[in-house]
Design goal:
Layout (H helix, E strand, L loop, with lengths): L1 E2 L2 H21 L6 E7 L3 H17 L2 E7 L5 H13 L5 E4 L9 H7 L11 H9 L7 H12 L8 E5 L6 H9 L8 E5 L6 H5 L4 E4 L17 E4 L3 E4 L7 E4 L4 H4 L5 E2 L6 H17 L6
Parallel strand pairs: 1-11, 2-3, 2-4, 5-6, 5-7, 7-8, 8-11
Antiparallel strand pairs: 9-10
Bound molecules: guanine (GUN).
Guanine (GUN) binds next to strand 4 and helix 6.
């Protein structure tokens, strides 16, 4: 069994990005600039945004944060997005999700200019991903594809089961692993809340992606011998073994599953750090105007 070290891989990617940024600056260009909009004070969102800002600093990117009160109107938020769409000093930006209930997520995501949509959530970018055209891939699936590629995991012809059909992870993961590319060419089954016989389907997977949002959901009986298991979940659950009284755990019951796998991602230190790496890679692409629309 090999542990897929997302933290080390993200560090490797960050150092690659850092040297590209240094070269850009040597050539007299300004560093890539990532902006984030944070609405309200959801603690998990604040943690994500802070960690994005810190990572930007580590690689030499400029980052800026636009904080909005939880009661900001949809019109005000759309105005801020329009401002960032037209700010030539900003290469890409994200609107941190979730948003308060009175704001239409789809309306917000539709109003981000596709060439600045480093989250890859705009319908134009989702469509381009589906067609295999150059685009910004959503950060978590992008990070997972990087892990699969950098660890040399064979995907050609494999049975891949994705648990969860979210727009952010499960659905794009299914698209990326089934398309005619390398990594890719998997036979993908996308499972969700209405799936029948989910356990039996999961147990047939050569590659199992758990993005279902339930702590410890994947147990040993759902995993085939020598499967590759990628755990996208991250949950803070009570624990009497830590000083804080909490521990981080994924969608996979790691202790019972790990010994059956050929490869597995731990939580923390697996997929999590790769999400930010994916976002940085997208922002670098945006700054280099690599994608034309
Ligand atoms: N909330 C949880 N994951 C994400 C993400 O990848 N991007 C944004 N914008 N919000 C999120």
């Amino acid at each position: 069994m090999k542990i897929i070290d997302g933290k080390a891989t993200a560090t490797e990617i960050k150092s690659e990005i850092k040297s590209i940024v240094a070269k850009m600056i040597d050539e007299g260009k300004r560093p890539p600039h990532l902006a984030a909009i944070l609405v309200g004070d959801d603690p998990a969102s604040q943690t994500y945004v802070n960690s994005k800002a810190k990572t930007c600093q580590d690689v030499g990117f400029t980052s800026s944060l636009y904080r909005q009160e939880a009661d900001v109107t949809e019109a005000e938020l759309l105005k801020l997005i329009d401002f960032l769409n037209n700010d030539h000093e900003v290469d890409g930006f994200i609107v941190q999700l979730p948003l308060p209930k009175h704001i239409s997520v789809q309306k917000v995501l539709n109003s981000v200019a596709p060439h600045k949509d480093v989250d890859g959530f705009h319908p134009v970018n989702v469509g381009r991903m589906l067609l295999g055209e150059p685009t910004y891939l959503p950060a978590t699936p992008f990070g997972i594809m990087q892990l699969i590629e950098r660890y040399g995991i064979e995907t050609e012809g494999k049975n891949c089961v994705v648990l969860g059909r979210s727009n952010i992870v499960g659905t794009p993961m299914g698209v990326l692993l089934s398309r005619n590319a390398s990594p890719g060419n998997c036979t993908v089954t996308l499972c969700h809340s209405r799936t029948q016989n989910l356990k039996a389907i999961a147990a047939n997977a050569d590659i199992l992606i758990a993005a279902i949002g339930k702590p410890g959901f994947v147990t040993a009986d759902m995993v085939k011998d020598n499967a590759v298991v990628i755990d996208v979940g991250i949950h803070r659950i009570p624990s009497d073994k830590t000083k804080s009284g909490f521990k981080l755990t994924g969608d996979v019951s790691y202790d019972e599953v790990a010994s059956k796998c050929s490869y597995i991602t731990p939580v923390p230190g697996g997929v999590g750090p790769m999400t930010i790496a994916g976002l940085l890679l997208n922002t670098l692409k945006a700054a280099q105007k690599e994608i034309t629309y």
